[in-house]
Amino acid sequence: MQPNVLCVDDERDVTDLLRFLLTRAGCEVRTAASGHAALAEVSARRPDVMVLDLMLPDLDGFSVCEILRRETATAGIPILMLTAWATPDARAHGLKLGAWDYLTKPFRPHELVGRVRELLGQEGVETCAKGKKPQQVDTEQRC
Asked: Which residue in 29, 39, 37 sits closest to 120, CA to CA?
């Protein structure tokens, strides 16, 4: 079974890129464009990992993270915050609220895929999905 990754960002170009990169790595990818939509997606089907932007139109990523951490059923979802907000205070706040990792935009595709794999508990493993070998991603390109 493929790992299920929920990518939350209000910029369609970003979610399209995340879908492309993570699908090529063997993951099933779902997307949401707002904080409330992300919470609805989590309620519908718990993701194995969530990639979460901070600056969302209705409910920011900090709030989404905090809400998920309060509920027993969602408290253990690994969250990677992916944001243009690159201040040390924002990073510290995100990690304090319960994000497992924090990556700033622009990002390197191989770094994002590697961090998602690490959150899936598959760091150093050649496959993201059982029996499916991930395709190569241009590791020098910045998104």
From this structure: 29
For residue 136 the two structure tokens come to 């190569």
Provide CB contacts within 8 A for 141, sequence distance 6+. 108, 109
* Domains of the chain from N-terminus onward: 4-119 (3.40.50.2300)
Write down the pTM of the prediction: 0.84
What SS3 class is residue 136? coil
Do 55 and 71 meet the contact criterion of CB atoms below 8 Å apart?
no
d(CA 75, CA 9): 20
How does strand 28-32 pair with strand 101-104? unpaired
- Residue 28 bridge partners (DSSP): 4
Average pLDDT over the chain reads 87
CA 141 distance to own-chain centroid: 19
Cis link prior to 134 (omega < 30° from 0)?
Answer: no
Q: What does the angle CA 6 – CA 18 – CA 94 come to, to the nearest 5 degrees?
A: 60
